[in-house]
Design brief:
14 helices, 384 residues, TIM Barrel, alpha/beta, Enolase-like, domain 1, 2 domains, four-stranded parallel β-sheet, four-stranded antiparallel β-sheet
Length: 384
């Protein structure tokens, strides 16, 4: 039925504009790989033959997906967007399949196109993208706030401020301090906040197997929701061993890029939680398939982010509200609140520590075209 409607609703894409943009972070973010002070992204605006516009966003992170804003811009200009512009029937699922045959991996670039085509489709049909993905099972989701590598005293300052704004879940970035101090950090925070606050330690691949075992043993009786990516992304054997040795759930983030990764991790029992990032995983349709794999294996899903602007955040939200196996914790829809500048109104969706699904067609987010151009570092246009 939906496929039949789409055949009558879609029109060729006749114009594609691509913008590389950048924004400073309001507060520097200390991770195991260094201190981040800004973030970059690639935005796509597709316009169809009837003048309907759709926006997409790519958030490459070279350290684990091998993509950069420069490589995304290049593959979009040379290969991906010419294929989109050549299609007479650019249905999103069809284009996903064509692009997967045309270009191996390059999921961030493909994901931006997927977001934009879903945005166009939803607007043409007058429905939210969540409806195209099967329909929402919830209308709002609690939001998490991330904490840099640091001490419990530094964490407390941020937690108290954000808790007053309605946030009750916090991710503790780790991977640079001695393990005993990280164990004590968790103990001190749980002693102070009790059950009112949920914590997620995230090592960002920063530990050896021995360090991860020491940490998990040291917090064995804690109330943390799960522990994210303690080992290097390719150490699947180590992740399997940790999952067997610890009762605490472990999450895969950097380890899960495409559907094959999801299948391998699920089949081997290497994670109890999948960290889903719409851009990293190739857009909402591919992310939806990963969530389905997780559900089939009894694995929870945590909706994560990559210091994104509002388009990716909106695409992730449209998918998240359809996922039945979300973990019971705050999810990463605070990204635009951490940017000095964002050309969308996504921040207005987050109120009192909760993100709310907008009742609008497409991705549901407004994009200020002039503001995009203000933030642009480089750009190109491909007319049909």
């Amino acid at each position: 039925m939906i496929a039949e409607l789409l055949r009558h609703q879609m029109a060729p894409i006749v114009d594609a504009e691509v913008f590389e943009i950048e924004s400073k972070l309001s507060t520097p973010y200390k991770l195991s790989e260094g201190i981040l002070t800004s973030t970059q992204a690639v935005l796509i605006k597709l316009t169809d033959a009837d003048g309907v516009e759709g926006w997409g966003e790519a958030n490459p992170t070279e350290t684990y997906d091998g993509e950069s804003t420069a490589s995304v811009m290049r593959i979009l200009q040379q290969t991906i967007l010419p294929a989109v512009l050549a299609s007479t029937d650019p249905q999103t699922g069809t284009m996903d399949a064509i692009l997967d045959r045309l270009v191996p991996l390059q999921l961030c670039a493909k994901g931006a196109v997927t977001m934009a085509l879903l945005d166009v489709t939803g607007k043409r049909m007058g429905v939210p993208v969540a409806t195209l993905l099967g329909g929402p099972v919830r209308r709002s989701i609690p939001v998490l706030w991330p904490l840099s590598n640091g001490t419990a005293d530094e964490d407390i300052c941020v937690i108290d401020e954000r808790a007053a704004q309605g946030f009750s879940s916090f991710m503790l970035k780790m991977g640079t301090s001695p393990i005993p101090s990280e164990i004590q950090r968790v103990a001190d925070l749980e002693a102070r906040y009790g059950t009112d606050v949920k914590f997620i330690p995230d090592a960002n691949q920063g530990w050896t197997r021995e360090q991860a075992r020491e940490f998990l043993a040291g917090i064995a009786h804690s109330r943390v929701a799960f522990v994210e990516q303690p080992l290097m992304k390719d150490d699947i054997d180590g992740a399997v061993a940790l999952c067997r040795q610890s009762a605490l759930p472990l999450s895969a983030d950097e380890s899960i890029i495409d559907l094959a990764d999801a299948a391998k991790l699920a089949a081997r029992g290497a994670a109890k939680v999948f960290s889903i990032k719409s851009s990293k995983n190739g857009g909402p349709l591919r992310a939806q398939r990963m969530a389905a794999v997780a559900e089939a294996f009894g694995i929870g899903c945590y909706m994560n982010s990559q210091l994104e602007f509002g388009i990716t955040q909106a695409a992730s939200l449209q998918h998240a509200v359809t996922v039945r196996n979300l973990v019971d914790v705050g999810h990463a829809f605070m990204s635009t609140l951490r940017l000095v500048e964002d050309p969308t109104n996504f921040s207005s969706f987050v109120r009192n520590g909760t993100v709310h699904l907008p009742d609008r067609a497409g991705l549901g987010v407004d994009v200020d075209d002039a503001y995009v151009r203000h933030l642009t570092l480089s750009s190109f246009r491909l007319p049909a």
